[in-house]
Amino acid sequence: MSPTTGTATKTTTPDSVSTAEPAPAPSSATSATFAPHDASPSKAHQVLSTPVPVRRAVRRLPYLLLKGATKSVAIVALLLLWETAPRLGLVDRTFLPPFSEVARAWWGLAADGQLADNARASLVRSFSGFGLAVAVAVPLGLLIGWYRPVADLLGPLLEVFRNTAALALLPVFVLLLGIGETSKISIVVYACTWPILLNTISAVRNVDPTLLKLAKSMDLSAPRLFQKVILPSAVPVMFTGIRLAGAVSILVLVAAEMIGAKAGLGYLINASQYNFAIPQMYAGIITISAIGVAFNQFLVAVERRLSSWRVPVGG
């Protein structure tokens, strides 16, 4: 009670806290400020901070290793058989030397530059002929497969030449074009054209009729129909022919180089046979096989890229 006014006064102290207002919750910044500096991040935080592609790669690593080992078992078994059979006397090592001797011969050819020079000559011829065949056969196959009058006009001519082996016409190419580069590239173009052409025609003719009806119901123009329906549907079958042509381009070229050439893997194999350098001959054969496998894998990758819209089987 105040002595002067006679009224009661309420005194507050700094330590008093009002019960009507709740205490503010500490902010995240404040809690972070008072967190101990030596606290290490949790394992869950470390996992979340790892990029998603890296985590997927880590999870798929055992599967990829198992798949690679499974695919390489047959090759390793063949190489072991190749190595042991001549040494055990199962075959004459004069005509089939052990794989280790062939590997040393391959390294010798690679070291002195013979292998690189001959492989370069063959690859230039093979890829030139293969590229020309793709540039000619794919548009022609699309045209023949889509327009029936063109197919009726060129059908009999195609039937005649498709059943004529490319190597049977090799003397004709040599007589007309000489033994230079032109005849070799031309024979590769001829041999590669037919697998690409015939598979492209089949791909266009076997497009799903339901897709065509749906596209036509949307009033798509002919160019858009070709772009959106025909070409995507025809890619898998087309690439079957392109992959066959890739193998044919190397095989036919090697045969052509054995007849008349001064460089190339076919020339290397033929010259090694005449000189009875059997390990060098097998080294050339292995090089051709490796190039063929690499080229086929490249075409498979291109096919997957162009047909990425397809739903994989089983998933």
Automatic annotation (TrEMBL):
Q: Does the keyword Transmembrane apply?
A: yes
Cellular localization per UniProt: Cell membrane
Q: In which broad location class does this protein mainly occur, judging by the first location in its UniProt entry?
A: membrane
Q: Which keywords fit this entry according to its UniProt record?
A: Cell membrane, Membrane, Transmembrane, Transmembrane helix, Transport
Q: Where is this region: Disordered?
A: 1-48
- Membrane-traversing stretches: 127-148, 160-179, 185-204, 248-269, 281-302
Compositional bias segments (type: Low complexity): 1-36
Q: How does it sit in the membrane?
A: Multi-pass membrane protein
Q: Which domain of life is it from?
A: Bacteria
Q: Which PROSITE patterns match?
A: ABC_TM1 (PS50928)
User: Known InterPro entries for this protein?
Assistant: MetI-like, MetI-like_sf
Q: Give every ABC transmembrane type-1 domain span.
A: 119-299
The UniProt family comment states: Belongs to the binding-protein-dependent transport system permease family.
Q: What is this protein called?
A: ABC transporter permease
Q: Which organism is it from?
A: Streptomyces chiangmaiensis
